[in-house]
Design a protein that fits this description.
By secondary structure, the chain is of the alpha+beta class. The chain has a single domain, classed as 2-Layer Sandwich (Alpha-Beta Plaits), CATH 3.30.70. Helices cover 36% and strands 29% of the residues. It comes from Microbacterium gallinarum.
Length: 128
């Protein structure tokens, strides 16, 4: 079965009080508990933003080059994500919709490629 990333950027989340954030956490926990019961849940985490970036790393002449802090050119930062393994896009749409309603902020869904062949074919077809 395909795996899907359901994610949101921190910038999509409006300001909330501590009580409101606790309420959102509880609401999303209900959805992830339902995902677990359905056998589709793989992993989820949230509460991340630019301030949680520890470092970034790039290849510099075959050596890993580390810089502290976030990648300064980033305008958006991952806020949280859930990974599910479901039968198809419709099932991923269902779970993403449940999260969007529970959290009251947008979610974006990506289907992970099924393997290297799919990645290579996609890049070949778009000129990449």
């Amino acid at each position: 079965m395909p795996k899907y990333l359901i994610a949101f950027n921190d910038e999509w989340v409006p300001e909330h009080t501590a009580d409101e954030l606790h309420s959102k956490s509880e609401a999303s926990r209900v959805v992830t508990d339902d995902m677990k019961a359905a056998g589709v849940y793989l992993f989820a985490e949230g509460g991340i933003d630019a301030s949680t970036a520890v470092f970034h790393v790039v290849n510099k002449d075959g050596t890993a080059f580390f810089t502290d802090g976030p990648f300064v050119e980033s305008k958006e930062h991952l806020g949280g994500f859930t990974v599910v393994e479901v039968a198809d896009d419709d099932a991923a749409r269902y779970w993403a919709g449940r999260l969007a309603v529970a959290l009251e902020w947008p979610q974006e869904v990506h289907r992970f490629p099924s393997g290297m062949t799919e990645i290579v074919e996609r890049h070949a077809s778009d000129g990449g």
